[in-house]
Amino acid sequence: MGGPLGIGGGLIMLVLALIFGPDVISNGSDGTAGGDVGAGLSPADSAREEPMVQFVSFVLDDVQKTWAEAFQSAGQAYRPATMVLFRNGTQSGCGVGQAAMGPFYCPLDEKVYIDLGFFNELDRRFGAPGDFAQAYVMAHELGHHVQHLLGTDAKMREMQQSNPRSANELSVRLELQADCYAGVWANSAAKRDKLSTGDVEEGLGAASAVGDDRIQSQTRGGVNPESFTHGSAQQRAEWFNRGLQSGSAQACNTI
Ligand SMILES: [Zn+2]
User: Fold this and answer.
1) Which residue from 166, 171, 165 is spatially nearest to 147, judged by alpha carbons?
2) For 131-164, how does the pLDDT look when each residue is reduced to its tens digit (9 = 90+)?
3) Nearest-angstrom CA–CA distance, 158 and 155
4) Which DSSP string corresponds to 192-207?
5) Host H or E run for residue 18
6) How many whole angstroms from 154 Cα to the centroid of ligand 1?
7) Contact criterion met (CB below 8 Å) for 219 and 233
8) Total domain count for the chain?
9) What separation in Å is there between the alpha carbon of 43 and the centre of ligand 1?
């Protein structure tokens, strides 16, 4: 398959199906998630996408609650990221977000940018709104926020500057850590009976299409986007499972 959603065939991996009930989704969030939701959407789009907006808001809140508790346990303060939904394009602190780019996290304004067109595509190809693919993608992006709060991204940029030849490898490690952090959240969600084991391999396959590396490479400079990768599907599943099994951010040390 070509295009941004192209995934390798034959991926066999453990993924989890989200079973957030519709009642939980409709009551679990006020749909604002820190503001900016709905920016750039026409009323028709907004009405059609309301269930998706509610779902991503719910997941955003749920993931951030998990991290706020983990930070608190470690004696650190968690600063929530905000979410921006867009369809065709948007300005971000990291440059212009484009349609079909996929979701991305901008450390400069601490916002997660969600391309609803990308989510529609996930939806069309991989199932109903509120499936695992979308939640996974959000948890991965918030993993980048956690990295930012912990200073991991800054540390990685320093390492990349002092050793440009390993820049790509370091970027991969950052991506795998974000996958692991998504697993840490999944662990917490599983404990609260929000997840069930299932054969939804498309979840991680879809997650591998996330394009945040592209915009990050543009803003950081010096990295050839074509050589950028999130790691192999197998690596991603491995690191996700590491977070899932341990439920601990300490298990996610790739850098
Ligand atoms: Zn990423």
Assistant:
1) 171
2) 677 788 889 999 999 999 999 999 998 998 999 8
3) 5
4) TT-EEEE--THHHHHH
5) strand 15-18
6) 15
7) no
8) 1
9) 30
The span from the CA of 240 to the CA of 222, in Å, is 28
In a domain, 3, yes or no: no
| Confidence tier at 43 by pLDDT (50, 70, 90) | low
251 neighbors 242 (Cβ within 8 angstroms) = yes
Q: What are phi and psi of 39, to 5 degrees?
A: -60, 130
Ligand 1 centroid from CA 140, angstroms: 6
- Tell me the C-alpha distance between 55 and 60, whole Å: 8
* DSSP-assigned letter for residue 80: -
Q: How far is the CA of 230 from the centre of ligand 1 (A)?
A: 7
What's the predicted TM-score (pTM) here? 0.73
- 2, part of any domain: no
Q: Which positions ≥6 away from 16 have C-beta within 8 Å? A: 132, 186, 190, 195, 196, 197, 198, 200, 203, 244
Phi, psi (deg, nearest 5) at residue 14: -80, 125
Centre of ligand 1 to C-alpha 174, Å, is 8
Cα 23 to ligand 1 centre (Å):
30
Structure tokens belonging to residue 145: 């926020």
Query: Which structural domain, as residue segments, surrounds residue 176?
Result: 11-252
In degrees rounded to 5, what are phi and psi of residue 218?
-65, -40
